[in-house]
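Section 5: illustrative case.
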């Protein structure tokens, strides 16, 4: 009887042959690339995804996306080593360099240099999702009071996550007003995903009245945030929600996203200019976000392949 591992390897080999046959008749391919390091580990993997229009059987072209590989990296992430990885992966799938229209990567100097060595100038497209992440991280990191408020919320969420009784009370307070399945719980943020911090703040804002009531009745519980701090949180939600929406839109895999970059950049800038925060810290974050959007997203030529 074949093992599960053996069956998976057979399936992989078969699927790979089919994919190589499909790619062999594709003349224009766009690649996206990222390097991931496992949490609490030094193991890194290079991920390469291919995007192309499938015109098989003379049908209407359909956009397809396939992940070519998630390959372990065993050396320092130098430009030369990344270039070597690109060459090995494209050779493995018989993808000719002339067929590669672009490679989308983050803005790391090693990645920029690797694409330049592998292809030529003008073939790299900056990853907008990565730029949006840098903008939000930069704007919040530059405002220490905002970070302190976010950390206080995180401490309260941690308290509820570690207290069965507090979590039970949180559910009980809602059950009289909501149907089964509609009861909400607090969301903990993850350091590697700024979106999760926004999710945490949104949910905390929604449940803030109940949370305050529960904390007031418990010993050794963290102090509830003040009303002025809650106003800052509401400013942050208004300011950051468009960035979350933009990230989700630009990360779609069922449609071409590069043409969305310039409209999204313009909409973000215009939207930020029109927002009127209620707190001085909200105004500070707004100013930082605007400056970073202009600095990182206002170079329209970086999205145009010459």
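Designed sequence:
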């Amino acid at each position: 009887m074949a093992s599960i591992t053996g069956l998976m390897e057979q399936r992989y080999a078969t699927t790979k042959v089919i994919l190589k046959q499909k790619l062999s008749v594709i003349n224009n391919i766009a690649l996206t690339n990222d390097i991931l390091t496992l949490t609490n580990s030094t193991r890194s993997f290079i991920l390469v995804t291919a995007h192309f229009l499938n015109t098989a059987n003379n049908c209407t072209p359909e956009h397809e996306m396939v992940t070519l590989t998630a390959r372990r990296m065993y050396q320092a992430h130098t430009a030369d080593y990344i270039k070597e990885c690109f060459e090995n992966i494209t050779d493995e799938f018989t993808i000719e360099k002339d067929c590669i229209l672009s490679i989308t990567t983050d803005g790391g100097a090693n990645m920029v240099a690797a694409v330049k060595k592998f292809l030529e100038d003008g073939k790299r497209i900056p990853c907008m999702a990565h730029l949006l992440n840098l903008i939000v991280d930069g704007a919040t990191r530059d405002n220490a009071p905002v970070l302190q408020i976010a950390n206080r919320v995180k401490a309260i969420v941690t308290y509820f996550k570690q207290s069965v009784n507090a979590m039970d009370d949180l559910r009980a307070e809602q059950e009289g007003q909501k149907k089964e399945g509609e009861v909400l719980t607090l969301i903990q943020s993850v350091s590697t995903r700024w979106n999760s911090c926004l999710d945490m703040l949104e949910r905390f804002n929604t449940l803030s009245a109940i949370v305050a009531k529960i904390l007031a009745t418990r010993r050794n519980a963290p102090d509830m945030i003040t009303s002025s701090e809650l106003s800052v949180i509401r400013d942050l939600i208004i300011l950051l929600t468009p960035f979350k929406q933009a990230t989700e839109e630009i990360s779609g895999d069922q449609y071409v996203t590069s043409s969305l970059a310039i409209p999204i950049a313009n909409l973000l800038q215009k939207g930020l200019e029109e927002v009127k925060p209620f707190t001085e810290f909200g105004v500070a974050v707004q100013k930082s976000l605007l400056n970073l959007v202009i600095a990182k997203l206002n170079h329209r030529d970086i999205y145009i392949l010459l």
